[in-house]
């Protein structure tokens, strides 16, 4: 495991655009040794390490797609793709170097180096730059740990979090260090503490310098996403409002190409923070023509005729099934998983309706949806029953945030609240079912990690 992880980091470094003079490859813990603010910034700007970190296991296991037949399932797909699709107990079956675990920890390793080395700088003339870079590092570590937690840990329940298993919380730049798993409460405490530190350090006047940079807006948006996923809707609403007070841009889809396979640019105006899925599982989770899979037919059927999202988001492949186009990014083959204002609008609307503020929730939804329908075709939501309004908002969340790696977390949250969502697959003559609140909503830690560190494996 040690050699594998060092090899992974070395590979990432070699393809980095950072300066090479401080990237001293050694068979020890000190692979990355930044010494100046320029060095720190170079590491944080390494997009391949810091931004392509969202695990894809939730996408592989979610209800947003289907594998077309047994032949496709047995074809070019990896063991992990095939077995995650049908929710096997052992989804790896010998596969090693699992990027869903390794990539977030590589980003954490970089962030730990920066946080540690910045504390050693004897004098800093540009304190604003120093604070922004340190804040960015804390944000990056928080973001990576949260991505890991929502895949490899149970749903956060305040009643059990002190006993539930969390993550190995590595805070040192020592890659050789073995850390046992914390509690889930300790994991979330670190995530939120790092996020609070980042919020205090980042300059409010430089809210989105570049979309891969951390900002106050991204801190508030991540906090809103986390609180929403935890079911803490009152806090989520406060963080959403803080986000939207800084950045509330919505794009009118009437101005977006319906025919282009890349309808959005790298500076898409709704994006607050840019991240993507790990670069793996292209045959099932990637963009464009993927003949092994199709987007779930029931989901496709939820889009009304004048809803532009159906044409903006999807294309038909050679077999006549729908695949996703590139999302909120201007290139590449893997899904956008970052933070954007449309997600904030949907969180706000849901939080409002859950607090009984139906009219305010309707206003938020109308502001969003009028920009998703053909001009003059949108029929505004009017007053309706609270439960029906909540159901409508949850449906719109599915339709708007499709293929962003959020659906799996949503299912866990809604089932914990009594949603009773049961997932079903049919593959050849076999049927598969994943019951609500099954232990298999938590993914196993990769086998090679267990063999190296002897941390406790998740029960499946």
Beta-strand fraction estimate = 5-15%
Taking the sheet with the most strands, its summary is: 2 strands, parallel
Q: Helix amount, in percent?
A: 40-55%
State the helix count.
19
Strand order of the largest sheet: 1-6
Query: What is the radius of gyration computed over CA atoms, rounded to a whole number of angstroms?
Result: 22 Å
Task: State the end-to-end CA separation.
Answer: 23 Å
Report what the structure shows.
The protein has 460 residues and is mostly helical. It contains 19 helices and twelve strands. It has helices at residues 2-14, 37-44, 47-50, 57-61, 70-74, 79-85, 99-118, 127-152, 184-201, 216-229, 233-246, 282-285, 297-300, 309-313, 341-354, 358-369, 386-400, 407-416, 447-453; strands spanning 52-54, 65-67, 165-168, 181-183, 271-273, 276-277, 293-295, 314-316, 322-324, 339-340, 423-427, 430-434. The strands form six sheets. It has a two-stranded parallel ribbon with strand order 1-6. α2 (37-44) packs antiparallel against α7 (99-118), α7 (99-118) packs antiparallel against α8 (127-152) and α11 (233-246) packs antiparallel against α15 (341-354). The longest helix has 26 residues, at 127-152. It is globular. The two termini are 23 Å apart. The model is unreliable at 1-30 (pLDDT under 50).
Characterize this entry briefly.
This protein has helices at 2-14, 37-44, 47-50, 57-61, 70-74, 79-85, 99-118, 127-152, 184-201, 216-229, 233-246, 282-285, 297-300, 309-313, 341-354, 358-369, 386-400, 407-416, 447-453; strands at residues 52-54, 65-67, 165-168, 181-183, 271-273, 276-277, 293-295, 314-316, 322-324, 339-340, 423-427, 430-434. It is mainly alpha-helical and 460 residues long. A hairpin with a 2-residue loop joins strand 11 (423-427) and strand 12.
